[in-house]
Amino acid sequence: MSIDRAEVIVTSPDRNFVTLKLTTADGVTGLGDATLNGRELAVVSYLKDHVVPLLIGRDESRIEDTWQFLYRGAYWRRGPVTMAAIAAVDMALWDIKGKTANMPVYQLLGGASRRGLLAYGHASGKTLDELFDSIRSHQEQGYRAIRVQTGVPGLKSIYGIASNATYEANKGVRYDHEPAQRGALPHEEDWDTRSYLRHIPTVFEAVRNEFGPELPLLHDAHHRLTPIQAARLGKSLEPYDLFWLEDCTPAENQEALRLVRRHTTTPLAIGEIFNTVWDYQQIIREQLIDYVRSAVTHTGGITHLKKVLDYASQYQIKSGMHGPTDISPVGMAAAMHLGLAIHNFGIQEYMKHGEKTDAVFEQSFTWQDGYLHPGDRPGLGVELDVDGAGRYPYVQAYLPYNRLHDGTVHDW
Ligand code: EZ4
Ligand code: CO
Hints:
By secondary structure, this protein is of the alpha/beta class. The chain has two domains: 2-104, Enolase-like, domain 1 (2-Layer Sandwich); 109-377, TIM Barrel (Alpha-Beta Barrel), CATH 3.20.20. It contains 14 helices and 20 strands. The strands form five sheets. Strands 4, 5, 8, 9, 10, 11, 12, 13, 15 and 16 form a ten-stranded mixed β-sheet that branches. The mean pLDDT is 95. Cobalt (II) ion binds at residues 220, 222, 246-247, 272.
């Protein structure tokens, strides 16, 4: 038994994706997602130049050993590029193990703990009318939980809202809320925290009045607030009963969340840009968050994220895995298998991929009545059409960045 071939496939059907494809001596294949939005080629190089040569000839059944070898063996630990590369190898090995065992990966992780995964989608609008239409359209698509983002008076373009600039930069190709834009330079957005803090509670009040108390509503502050501002936002949103407030501060300062917690009972979700359990050590132990936002793709794969979530489960903290369009269908499948198996599943973010992406990545998951299920195909249940992928070469794309009115760069 050994890994015979390892290929890194970059494709840009609607946006860029990086996929690792492993093939064993017996001809079994496994796929892993290594997409890091806006920094894709760094992971491609990490894999091609430094990981692929180490994989050839290795026993594909040794998932934990391979993980430890890549993590400890590199000497240089953690970081999004390293952990995305390790994640891709890990996912591909789980895919192979599932196919070899003739079982879907969730069975190897302990079997299903539920019938399906409650998923939330992204509703947005510059104005309340546009936002209400977007919420209704998500309900029509079956969503039973909805993230709400809106424009803020005085700000031209803002995270979470599909903008014409995005549409034009991407030459007419647009995911509704894909923030990365094709082009040689990143797009500049503007930001003003005081306007935002004044406006957002009025939006949630209007949404609750229109849609009633039942619908789970989420919101993403996207790392923009100081601890005391985040505390104030959480407190002012309490009457509207959010499912969660996400990334209220740039949470690399884990202690900051103590201050937020002292002031609000709005549930907090953090971690989409984290990549190891060490980023969560304090905020889980001190119960400073309620949901772990990490994606399988950016947190060292199924093997490592399961350890993070098992740790979180001791504190009644649940999963809320990242699922924007920059997680490839392979990464989404890995999230669904893990989410189905663990006990402390919370919710899964789910944004639909574009048609070209769905044609290149053939997938087994189902979406029914607001619930996702990974399907019962052996492995992860995703196959990549390599020739099809080859028709869409990499296109340079960047995430935007923020400036305040006086020109200061601000967290995006
Ligand atoms: O901005 O995935 O909750 N979702 C998010 C995403 C991130 C993008 C960055 O690549 O915050 O939309
Ligand atoms: Co987010």
